[in-house]
């Protein structure tokens, strides 16, 4: 069963690199376009192959064994990402963060679109250390969509921006011990608190985030058209202004979900209350991103199911490397498996040295932008930004090329 699971994991990984191919098939064969579009959704990939794994397991080991394995997995992270995406993507929260970004942009001696782009790529990822990385990804993606991921910009520019966003989100959550999934997996076991994270990882990550965001924004600045002022018709059709109290309540729900991120019974209860509140004050809302969040949760749940049977070959690799080699090994392995799963396996190694602990986590977060599966918030970014790309899909190769330069910068800072 371990070998079968590894083979299915490899097929799922190959499938993530082939989503563009399925989109092309959808255009060439309109009769089956629905099926090919479904298989071309990167958020569907791991959930689809996880279902295949459970079916194969039921055939090989029996239905009871398959059900027991599926129920033995921990789905807190997929549930949390689903909830935090919906709450963070709600209109009152988004407009509150937009107001903050717009206010800071006006203080900068730059064109508004350039200043806002830089703030979305630099400030918002660092805020992720307080509101968690998935929430930061949701907010940054929704604000960057009309600025960068829009018609008229070359595809390579969009992939470069996507790579910087994913890398900055991955490393920007390391200023605290609870915001980044790969840090969270080891913080309690190794006794790493937020003060330790800020002093050991955080300042290096902040420098890398600022350099990455600045370099990309300078490169993009001439390609970013000025923001068009809203027309009278658009202003008249706009939804009613959100009252301050409604924004405060939404932000309180967001804070509550973050505070109870490890307690699904609590944050799901808060989510149900949040849904009721949005219905009660529907006039201040825009449609919640339920579909996108559900797809991302499905993706991560599939990764949990498939990844649960990969320990037999991953852990020997992690435990057999010296600290420096472990850094580069973790950076590379993160591209083909979730970085939180990788650090969790490292936390199981008895007697691991302090330098090895640092190198494992540093490599895992530095490589968190290389692929869609490398970091838990990445599928959220893909779901919210894919419509800005050709064929409304994001190619794994383009993402990889776009993420290499900011990944190198993150690696250099963590190796200092």
Q: How would you describe this protein?
A:
This protein is an all-alpha fold and 416 residues long. Helices cover 74% and strands 0% of the residues. The chain is built from 22 helices and no strands.
Chain-wise SSE layout:
Elements: H1 2-17, H2 19-28, H3 33-39, H4 42-61, H5 63-72, H6 76-88, H7 91-106, H8 112-131, H9 133-144, H10 155-172, H11 181-190, H12 194-220, H13 232-237, H14 244-259, H15 264-280, H16 290-307, H17 311-319, H18 323-334, H19 339-347, H20 354-366, H21 378-385, H22 396-415
Helix pairs in contact: 1-4, 2-3, 4-5, 4-16, 6-9, 6-14, 6-15, 6-16, 7-8, 7-14, 8-9, 8-10, 8-12, 9-10, 9-21, 10-12, 10-22, 11-19, 12-22, 14-15, 16-21, 18-20, 19-20, 20-22
Summarize the structure.
This protein is mainly α and 416 residues long.
Shape estimate: globular
Discrete helix count: 22
Q: What kind of sheet is the major sheet?
A: none
> What percent of the residues sit in helical stretches (DSSP H or I)?
over 70%
Order of helices and strands: HHHHHHHHHHHHHHHHHHHHHH
Secondary-structure class = mainly alpha
**pLDDT average, as an integer?**
89
What separation lies between the terminal Cα atoms?
A: 42 Å
Q: Enumerate the spans where pLDDT stays under 50 for 5 or more consecutive residues.
A: 230-236
- The domain count comes to 1
Number of strands: 0
Strand content: under 5%
Question: What value does the Rg take, in angstroms?
Answer: 21 Å
